[in-house]
Amino acid sequence: MSRRGWVSALSLFAWVLAGSGPAFAEAPEPEGYRMEAYRAPVPETLEGATVVGTELAHTLWLEGKTAFIDALPHTPKPKNLPEGTLWHEKPRQSIPGALWLANVGYGRLADITDRYFREGLKKATGGDHGHPLLFFCLADCWMSWNAARRAVLDYGYTAVYWYPSGTDGWAEAGYPLEAITPVPMP
Fold first, then answer.
1. At what angle do helices 142-153 and 111-125 cross, to 10 degrees?
2. Within the chain, where are the H helices?
3. Residue 49: strand, helix, or coil
4. Domain boundaries along the sequence of the chain
5. Residue 25: pLDDT band with limits 50, 70, 90
6. Which residues touch 51 (CB under 8 Å, ≥6 apart)?
7. Which of 113, 117, 164, 179 is buried deepest, with most CB atoms within 10 A?
8. Under DSSP, is residue 9 helix (H, G, I), strand (E, B) or coil?
9. Which CATH number fits domain 50-74+90-186: 3.40.50.300, 3.30.1360.70, 3.40.50.10070, 3.40.250.10?
10. Across the chain, what does the average pLDDT equal?
11. Which residue in 185, 170, 156, 184 sits closest to 68, CA to CA?
């Protein structure tokens, strides 16, 4: 790299460290749900929920009193694939003990997905709307933000945590991951 290239790279690095760069982009909380571009910078807040970092998420996990809900979307194997078609299930490494409620983080939910989400949360909490829930996905993933918001606003859960760094932040901290599969849709 030329001397000019190094100076440009160092200037960009300083700009990012100062908080002006794209690494610190912050999205405002929408009034409703995020409806598109689900992999994009997320807000630092979620009204009605507590936003947690990796260390607090890990502490909650160690205490074992909070239900961890993975909101990562999942594409199921199509039922009518022609015979002989190869299908490779994408593995999911998640926080141990998490309940994977796939596809519950979209901005709009079909009735069947809404019922699936409600039933999954009921299973995770024993029907107690005060039972702590922690929602996560990946870093810069609106799926967990939408899911946590829906649990607070539409379903009436009162002890909701949102972990925006998700499994990316968890893995980066060196915490364990395990292979999980989504809770089947009815």
1. 80
2. 3-17, 54-63, 111-125, 142-153, 166-172
3. coil
4. 50-74+90-186
5. low
6. 44, 45, 161, 162, 163, 164
7. 164
8. helix
9. 3.40.250.10
10. 87
11. 170
Question: Which neighbouring-strand residues pair with 147?
Answer: none
**Confidence category of residue 6, pLDDT binned at 50, 70, 90:** very low
Query: What is the pLDDT confidence band of residue 11, given thresholds at 50, 70 and 90?
Result: very low
pLDDT at 75: 83
DSSP state of 106: S
* Overall average pLDDT of the 137-147 stretch: 97
CA angle 85, 182, 161 (to 5 degrees): 145
Q: How far is CA 164 from CA 49, 82, 99, 111, 169, in A?
A: 12, 39, 17, 26, 8
Q: Could you tell me which residues come within 8 angstroms of residue 125 by beta carbon, excluding any fewer than 6 positions away?
A: 67, 131, 133, 157
Instruction: Give the position of tokens 């859960």.
Output: 157
DSSP, collapsed to helix, strand or coil, labels residue 94 as strand
Provide the pLDDT confidence category of residue 81 given band limits of 50, 70 and 90: confident
